[in-house]
Amino acid sequence: MSDVSNSRDDAQLTPAEWKVMKVVWRHRYRGCAARDVYTETARTEGWAPTTTKSILRRLVDKGHLSVRQVGNAYLYEPAGSAVKSLLAAADSLIDNLLEGTSGLVISHMLERTRLTDDELARLRELIDRRTADRTDDEHPKQA
């Protein structure tokens, strides 16, 4: 049995790589067999196994996945959490926003996302804190 693993770098995921990573993240607790990924991407994307194999290899090379051989099978495991990858993608989006467009992008994301009551409460708390910080900056307290 061989074990091949790379440390994850900051290379951004392509849309095709995100699709493969979602499959692997769903199977992360038991390891994700290559055939699981081929089967799902063939069904959902119409991809040939060779396409999926190429993407898996690229994800290993970029450090987003580790792979180990168990008998004749290859098991893939994510090198990082889905949340960490999503936050890195969000940071990249923020870094690329044009001045004055952040509110529009955040509004768009909120409109496209279903949020729980707890998530909405957290967002309200953040907005309230931001509003209070801005008010404090505009009206500094006198000593």
Please characterize this protein's 3D structure.
There is one protein chain. By secondary structure, this protein is of the alpha+beta class. It has two domains: 3-78, Winged helix-like DNA-binding domain superfamily/Winged helix DNA-binding domain (Arc Repressor Mutant, subunit A); 82-138, no CATH class. It has helices spanning 15-26, 34-45, 49-62, 82-95, 102-112, 117-138; strands at 3-4, 32-33, 65-70, 73-78. It has a four-stranded antiparallel sheet with strand order 1-3-4-2. A hairpin with a 2-residue loop joins β3 and β4 (73-78). The chain is elongated, with a radius of gyration of 21 Å.
DSSP summary, beta strand count: 4
What's the CATH class label of the largest domain?
Mainly Alpha
C-alpha Rg (nearest Å): 21 Å
User: CATH topology of the largest domain, anyone?
Assistant: Arc Repressor Mutant, subunit A
Provide a count of the helices: 6
CATH superfamily of the largest domain: Winged helix-like DNA-binding domain superfamily/Winged helix DNA-binding domain
| Poorly predicted sequence stretches spanning 5 or more consecutive residues | 1-10
Q: Give the ordered list of helices and strands.
A: EHEHHEEHHH
Level of helix content?
A: 55-70%
Query: What portion of residues belong to β-strands?
Result: 5-15%
Estimated structural class: alpha+beta
In total, the number of domains comes to 2
